[in-house]
Known about the structure:
- The chain is of the alpha+beta class.
- Helix content is 29%, strand content 28%.
- A hairpin with a 2-residue loop joins strand 6 and strand 7.
- Helix 1 crosses helix 2.
- The longest helix has 16 residues.
- The protein is globular, with a radius of gyration of 16 Å.
- It starts with a strand and ends with a helix.
Amino acid sequence: MLLLEKYVALLRGVNVGGKNKIAMPVLKKAFEDHGFLDVVTYINSGNIVFTSPSQEIRTLIKKSERIIKETFGLDIPVMIVSKNELEDLLQHTPKWWGDSNKEIIHYAIFLIPPICIEEVFEAVGEIKPEYEQITHHNNVIFWSAPRETFSKARWSKIASSSVNNHVTIRNANTISKLLSLTK
């Protein structure tokens, strides 16, 4: 009997500023047509929860990227995390990350292999402790900054850094919702 596992696919850079347009209903159907089960998309930024026989993550990434290429003609990097990895990640968040204070922005920055934490920190540079907090667990960086001074934070510039194409970013609310969808 095959053991089925829940996974979350995080697509990088879709439906942002009118670029890399992907309709979530079409994406959902494409994943289902390729054998993924219990497929759910969440918001328009490329979050897909699905069930699949337990597989090596790299195989799931390649399959997902191929589906996107065949369906939409786009080369979109995909990060895949298992339900267990997502649970572990949220158990290792710093106390200051993801609280309910609406005046603070909380991001989880997922590294898309083969890039590593050190490369991202080197490219983006030292934090400005007066404006931001940062730490990491495995290949996810937790970053928080007040809305009021967001633009002064060093890490708010990650989108214009040399590592931008090697990360995908989600806010704390999205991460919590994605975990709830894996239940």
